[in-house]
Write a structure and sequence with these properties.
The protein is an alpha+beta fold. It contains 2 helices and 7 strands. The longest helix is centred in the last third of the chain and has 65 residues, at about 110-175. It is rod-shaped and about 105 Å long.
């Protein structure tokens, strides 16, 4: 006859609970390049600067309410300041960093203590992650600036050539009738305008 034993086994819980807390923060990095715009005094300074503004608007720059002009160049914003004496090329990088702090606690730990430890851990983790991301964003902003700068310099040089041609023609007309105009330039940015004026 079979004999058996009926055993009742109970499992004792480990007495641990796991909780987590998410935290996020917006981080950004910005860098810029400043390029001074110096104009030869072919005409009065303000007249020269107004010709520059008009030429840039013709090349797609947008006039802002404060008198500045802006244009996006290779994903970076270029801005001619209101007095048309400096161009600022500015790159801004933004990102949201999110971290999750997850910890195990004894089942007897109070909710206040759990919240406190999770807050402290999440804050420390978020600070480290935000700092690392800001450094990465800063490098990305510099790379974008360096990529866009040659194009901006070329556009500004082309605009200045147009400004000088217009200013020289205007000045020559004050002296007499312009018979002919000859322009020549080279890839190095040198630009020459020859005007023959009949007095």
């Amino acid at each position: 006859m079979p004999c058996g034993m009926n055993l009742e086994l109970g499992w004792e819980g480990l007495g641990r609970i796991v909780r987590s807390k998410d935290r996020s923060k917006d981080v950004s990095a910005q860098d810029e390049i400043h390029i001074d715009v110096r104009l030869l005094p072919v005409l009065p300074e303000e007249e020269m600067r107004e010709i520059l503004r008009r030429v840039l608007e013709g090349d797609g720059w947008k006039r802002q309410s404060d008198g500045s002009l802006t244009k996006s160049i290779d994903g970076v914003v270029a801005e001619l300041d209101p007095d048309a004496s400096r161009v600022v090329l500015r790159a801004v990088e933004k990102k949201t960093v999110t971290v999750t702090e997850r910890r195990g606690f004894d089942k007897d730990t109070s909710d206040e203590e759990i919240d406190k430890q999770l807050d402290e851990g999440a804050k420390a983790q978020l600070d480290r992650a935000a700092k690392a991301e800001e450094e990465a964003l800063s490098r990305a902003a510099v790379a974008r600036l360096l990529g866009a700068e040659p194009s901006l310099r070329e556009q500004i040089q082309t605009a200045l050539n147009k400004v000088y041609r217009e200013a020289l023609e205007k000045r020559a007309k004050q002296l007499g009738a312009v018979e002919w105009v000859k322009e020549q330039g080279d890839p190095g940015g040198n630009y020459e305008v020859t005007l023959v004026v009949k007095a």
